[in-house]
Design brief:
single chain, mainly beta, 4-stranded antiparallel β-sheet, about 50% strand, elongated, immunoglobulin domain
Length: about 160
């Protein structure tokens, strides 16, 4: 996993034998075990790493009015009960524009206003709730609805 993993040697003296993985990949999910030997003592611990991914299809960049699919997947083993989506912190309701189905969200005609922070929240049968964020960028025209713009002579026009 090198060079994505590191251990802070300076923290070892204080009993901190944490492992840092950056960036985490889907295949990193699983059980990790650490063993530290000091004099005649051996300390060990186990940590399970779960990974959640949000993917975009087709991949970026998203072009205004071209359908896109956001998918949210987790390494959690229980059955998925519910998927909720949030855009810029607000819940997204299924409508003519959005359709949510088993971990995925279809945006049929994405607009520039759909750009921003998207969060999927997965709820499982064992009560576990997992969420992840995705920053969506959309290429399009974010100008006036009227294509005629007036500007005073000598001033700037956008």
């Amino acid at each position: 996993m090198r060079p994505r993993v590191s251990v802070q040697d300076s923290a070892l003296r204080n009993g901190n034998f944490s492992l840092r993985i950056d960036p985490v990949r889907s295949e990193d999910a699983g059980l990790y075990e650490a063993q530290v030997a000091y004099n005649t003592k051996v300390q060990s611990c186990q940590v399970e790493l779960g990974v959640i991914t949000v993917t975009l299809s087709p991949p970026s960049p998203v072009v205004e009015n071209e359908p896109v699919l956001l998918s949210c997947n987790s390494s959690h083993q229980a059955s998925l009960v519910e998927t909720c989506w949030f855009h810029n912190g607000h819940p997204v309701s299924t409508s003519g524009t959005f359709c949510s189905s088993h971990g995925s969200l279809s945006i049929f005609r994405p607009a520039v206003s759909d750009a921003g922070s998207w969060r999927c929240q997965l709820r499982y049968s064992d009560g576990e709730i997992i969420s992840a964020m995705y920053s969506l960028q959309i290429l399009g025209f974010d100008g006036p609805t009227n294509p005629v713009v007036y500007a005073a002579a000598g001033s700037a026009a956008d």
